[in-house]
Amino acid sequence: MRISDLFVYPLKSGRAIALQTTEITAFGLPGDRRAMIADPAGHFITQRELPTLARIEAVLDGDNLQLALSGNAPIRPSFSSERRLNVDIWKTDVNAAVADDNTNQTLSEWLGRDVRLVFFDGNAKRTASAEWAGDGTPVTFADGYQILVTTTASLRALNADLAAHGGGSVGMERFRPNIVIDSDEAWAEDRWTAIEIGGMRFDLVKPCARCIMTTQDQQTGSREVPNPMPAMGRIRMSGDRRVPGPLFGWNVTPRGTGTISVGDAVSVLEERPEAWPMKVRGEKVR
């Protein structure tokens, strides 16, 4: 197996940026989900509420951010360590830097509602769930964990089910991964405990439950496109109540630092005694 694609998302729910190589830090991929849109009260906003976010491209160079929306002049937000907002993301609170007023006004015009742009700077702190990732593993504005891994074989299997039911097909971009592994066996990742890439260990700590964002075109935000949810409902419903719903991909916590690149070999270090259970239609979830 090898890495087929690498992606980073400087703005949470914004467009993906494809990479050929990347460092790996305790936070995952540098620059990933460093910026986020929030409402004035500090509640985070994603494509679930504002599909237009899929049209915003963010480029991050160090701490310098540029945002662009087609048909509009790009903006370059400025942040001050003294200008801050407490934001909540999936029941965790983060004290983040807030962009300048002009940036927030422009983004509010782009998105059609009053919003704030926040940035995970050096003073911001957040950790992943200790229950799944262990104590003290840092994370930025990702939904919960440092890295999301998907495999090409599993996407092929999902699309085969979609095609069998006349549902069209979807691309990997719908699932917004960081690392895509070119593989032959569908759903093999449900058994993996840890993988190795570039001499580094990556623990697969929790399967990723999917939401309405997978039904949206990741260039336009449109939902008038093939929908993977019916296929996931048929073949990928979690059989473990700790992570309910349709599953695709795994949340991963890195256990080292280094550099990885497209084409790097991926090997399985450890496997679970049994794969993550999937629900059979009609049976109760354990």
Which spans of ≥5 residues are poorly predicted at pLDDT below 50?
A: none
Could you describe the largest sheet, including whether it forms a barrel?
8 strands, mixed
Distance between the termini: 32 Å
Q: What structural category arises from helix and sheet content?
A: mainly beta
Report the sheet-strand fraction: 25-35%
| Number of E-state strands | 17
- The helix/strand series, from N terminus to C terminus, equals EEEEEEEEEHEHEHEEEHEEE
Mean pLDDT: 95
Number of helices: 4
In helices, the fraction of residues equals 10-25%
Strand order of the largest sheet: 2-1-12-11-15-14-13-17
C-alpha geometry: globular
| Radius of gyration of CA atoms, rounded to a whole number | 19 Å
Verbal overview:
- The chain has 286 residues and is mainly beta.
- The protein has four helices and 17 strands.
- The strands form four sheets. It has an eight-stranded mixed sheet. A five-stranded antiparallel sheet has the order 5-4-10-9-8, with helices on one face. A two-stranded antiparallel sheet has the order 3-16.
- A hairpin with a 5-residue loop joins strand 4 (35-38) and strand 5.
- Helix 3 (152-164) packs across helix 4 (229-235).
- The longest helix is centred in the middle third of the chain and has 13 residues, at 152-164.
- The mean pLDDT is 95.
Key phrases:
286 residues; mainly beta; 8-stranded mixed beta sheet; 5-stranded antiparallel beta sheet; 4 helices
